[in-house]
Amino acid sequence: MSTMHFGTCSWKYESWEGLVYEPGSTKRYLAQYADTYDSVEVDRWFWSLGKRSYGLPFPHDVREYDQDTPDSFRFTIKCPNTLTLPFRYQSKREPNPWFLDAEVFYRFIETLEPLIPKIGLLMFQFGYLNRSMFKDRDEFLESLDRFFSLLPDSLPYAVEIRNPAWMEASYFSFLEERQIGPVLLSGYWMDDLATQLQRAGSHLHSPFCVRLHGEDRKEIEKESEGKWNRILESHDQEMIAIAPRLVKLAQEGKVIYINVNNHYEGSAPLTIRKLMDYCQEA
C-alpha cells in the first residue's frame, strides 16, 4: 500500500490533541502532523474570488509549509475558485472573467514555487455544473480541454465535479486521455464511492484522489460543538466496500490520495485509522 497516501482536509484543530498533536508542544501543528501522515489537503487558497479581484497565497505561508514538512511529504492543493466558478462573486448570471484563465493559474503556481517538489495533486473543484452554466457536459469539457492544453505537462492535476449524471465512463476516459486524475467525492449527493470506482473502471489516471467529505455540514458541526475527536456518524459500510478496490488499485501501482474531512464521521484521524485497518484486512 505504499502508493496510498492517507491524509486529512486541513489540520488546524485543537481538538486533535491526543490524536495527532502532543498537548503543550511548541511545534507548529503542521510539523507535528507530518510526524503521523505523509499528505494533507490544503483548501485555504481555494476561497480566492472576491468582488473586484482575487487573492493569491502569501509567500510566508508557502515557505512555512515547506519548512514544516519533510521532502517526502505531499500536498494536495485545491486551486483557487477564481478558476472554477463560472460566475462572479455571489452572482448567478454575470460571468467570472477569470474562469479557467491560464494566466491566473500561472500566477498561482509562481507563488507556490518552494512547494512544487512536494505537490501531490493540484485539484480543480467545480460545483454542481448544470445548464445555467453550460448547455451540456460537452461544452464544459471543451472549455476544460482548452484550459489544460495551456498548462505545463510537468504538474499533477485532478478534477472534481459534483454532478453524478456527468460522471460516466466517457468522462473518466476524457480525463485519462489528458493525464488528469479524477477526484471521487463522498458527500454532496454524489453516488457512493464504490459506484464511482466501478464506473471509472480501468480509466483511472494516476494520481487520483478519494475525498471522504460528508454531506450535512451544519448538522454535524452542531453535534460536534467544534470538537473533532470522536465518531459521530459511522460510514463503515462505505469504507468496507471501497477498501479492497483501493488496495487492488494500489497493488497495480496507482497513486491514490485519500483525503478525509472531519465532517465525514466527526473525526478525520479516527476515520483514517478505521479505513487503514479495513485496507489491511482486504
Short description, anyone?
By secondary structure, the chain is of the alpha/beta class.
The helix tally amounts to 10
Mean pLDDT: 96
Largest sheet: 8 strands, parallel, barrel
**Percent helix:** 25-40%
- Helix/strand structural class: alpha/beta
Q: How far apart are the first and last residues' alpha carbons, in Å? A: 11 Å
Write the element-wise H/E pattern from the N-terminal end onward.
EHEHEHEHEHEHEHHEHH
Using only CA atoms, what is the Rg? 18 Å
Number of strands: 8
Strand order of the largest sheet: 1-2-3-4-5-6-7-8
- Mass-distribution shape: globular
Could you tell me the strand content as a percent range?
Answer: 15-25%
Unreliable segments of 5+ consecutive residues: none
Protein model, in words:
It is a single chain. With 282 residues, the chain is an alpha/beta fold. It is 34% helix and 15% strand. It is built from ten helices and eight strands. Helix 4 links the parallel strand 4 and strand 5. It starts with a strand and ends with a helix.
List the helices and strands and how they pair.
Blueprint: E1 4-9, H1 29-33, E2 39-42, H2 59-67, E3 74-78, H3 102-111, E4 119-125, H4 137-148, E5 157-160, H5 169-177, E6 180-186, H6 193-200, E7 208-212, H7 217-224, H8 236-251, E8 256-260, H9 262-265, H10 268-281
Parallel strand pairs: 1-2, 1-8, 2-3, 3-4, 4-5, 5-6, 6-7, 7-8
Helix pairs in contact: 8-10
Please name the defining characteristics of this protein.
282 residues; alpha/beta; 8-stranded parallel barrel; 10 helices; 15% strand; globular
